[in-house]
């Protein structure tokens, strides 16, 4: 069985939103499938924005960073759940990633060598949106998701990366329920 990290990337830590339900459904399915699960809710974290390269490469990271890095190191599979806001991930999730994916953590050495220290992990990215998912994927090109996949996850060695796009979340309770069931099955399978 796998060690799975679920990163709930919705910036609202109140926990009464659809992304929270999806993260809980995935985690419940994974636990039912015998997997070890840890959940990080970035909405509950005090995440600030980085303002300089010096802040990113040196200095003391915020308190949440060591625990997040340890959770990523111990995970075999990482699941990101977030809503599509202005065509991309919420700014708080991006800021969290900038803090956590510091150069030394991902394998960028001071001499310029890059070792991709996060190899051997897979990922699933679950994105919710009001528009139909095919419109995001084919009409808009899923550019922000492609960038996250290629320029962050695969770049640091995390592969394969699978996507689950859940569109029309504001139009149908039946569609929302079907997606919760689908995500729970993905969790049970550890995929």
From TrEMBL:
GO cellular component: cytosol
UniProt keyword list: Oxidoreductase
Coiled-coil spans in chain: none
GO molecular function: NAD(P)H dehydrogenase (quinone) activity
Annotated ranges, domain Flavodoxin-like fold: 3-183
Organism field: Roseivivax marinus
Keyword Oxidoreductase: yes
Protein name stated in the entry: NAD(P)H dehydrogenase (Quinone)
Pfam families, sorted: Flavodoxin_2 (PF02525)
Family: Belongs to the NAD(P)H dehydrogenase (quinone) family.
Statement: the UniProt record of this protein carries the keyword Oxidoreductase: yes
InterPro entries: Flavodoxin_fold, Flavoprotein-like_sf, NAD(P)H_dehydrogenase_qn
